[in-house]
Amino acid sequence: MTILLVRLRLAGDVVFTTPAIRALAERFPRAHLMYLVETDALPIVSHNPHLSEVIALPYARGWQRVIDDVRTARRLRAAKIDLAIDFHGGPRSAWLTWASRARKRVGYDVQGRTWMYTDVVHRPRELLPRHSVESQWDLLAAVDPVFSRRADPECDRVEMAVASAARDAVDQRLAAWGAPAGAQVIVIHERSGTPFRRWPESSYAELAAGLAAADAKRWVVFVGGPPDREAIVRVVAAARALAGSAGRRIVDGEGMPLQELRALMDRAALFIGTDSGPLHVASTSDVPIVGLYGPTLPVRSAPWRPRRLATVSIDAGVLPCRPCDQRVCAPGDFRCMTTIRAETVRAAAERLLEPAR
User: pLDDT tens digits for 247-261?
Assistant: First the structure.
């Protein structure tokens, strides 16, 4: 039996499908389990032990996308797929699912795309207070009645396997920064791909400076992707200026690959970040997490992992415009993020760091 799983776009969304990967592998242990993912999120599943094959699809536009999709469709068709599950529901993923010619094709009832599936699962149009992992899990019920049970973070947690090379690379980075073996590493993801989920740079600087200055064992590492380069440089400089002599223990980790970021989580004492890919990568580890939520709700995208693992979710509380579809900020000032105070986040971080003292 050959099973194809499709989840395009962002890393966090791919993380949310990993409980389903494990569940399918356990239900169909002899199946050839394929996963179609875009290149940027490939590290999330590239070492997943439950997958037999991973296909990376470049994110392109125009005619190049058409060429890539046709080439991928031919590869999928040649695999003679029995079951295809589209966890995304976008036009590209729906077409590729259909083009695979799988005998059974499962997807959401998105208007204009249901004809591409043989089995359709209802997905509410409104933003309900329900976790995204559960929404992904809904598709499995159309595959086998055994999946009619609810997904449970205690036994169906998100996961991301780590390559030994990534662990070695992290050790080398820490040594290059001057962090000793007993350092208490605090990882902060400074940026988000959308302005709707960005916390002010001044708040990050205040937070990092306070955490570093409070304990000589602490090393604060800012992480982010290449688009975050200039912002991280500014924040690190501002945090160092505020922290005085402790500023040397605030370092720039921008550009760290996702595999290394995941390996760093096993070394870290705390992760702080907004609702974005790095937070969900962190959630695949046991590291304590402080998550900041603006337009999104923690009930929908908080770390999906056992309750024994320390997790604090912070948001601006009830606002008439929250949650939103992140297309236009109705008030115009992104208040769901900008009103979260640095001292509030710092207090939550200190509570989670207390056991490590």
Answer: 999 999 988 999 999
pLDDT surpasses 70 at 105: yes
* Amino acid present at 107: G
pLDDT at 255: 86
Does pTM top 0.90 for this prediction? yes
- Between CA 125 and CA 8 the distance in angstroms is 20
Identify which of 84, 114, 60 has the alpha carbon closest to the alpha carbon of residue 6.
84
Mean pLDDT of the chain, nearest integer = 94
Q: Give Cβ neighbours of residue 25 (< 8 Å, ≥ 6 apart).
A: 31, 33, 50, 51
**Omega within 30 of 0 (cis) for the link into 323:** yes
* Answer CATH for 2-148 from 2.60.40.10, 3.40.1190.20, 3.40.50.2000, 3.40.109.10: 3.40.50.2000
Closest CA to 7 of 111, 92, 114, 124: 92
Give CATH for domain 164-356.
3.40.50.2000
Contacts of 40 (CB under 8 A, 6+ apart): 10, 11, 59
CA distances from 68 to 75, 119, 169, 206 (A): 11, 26, 32, 45
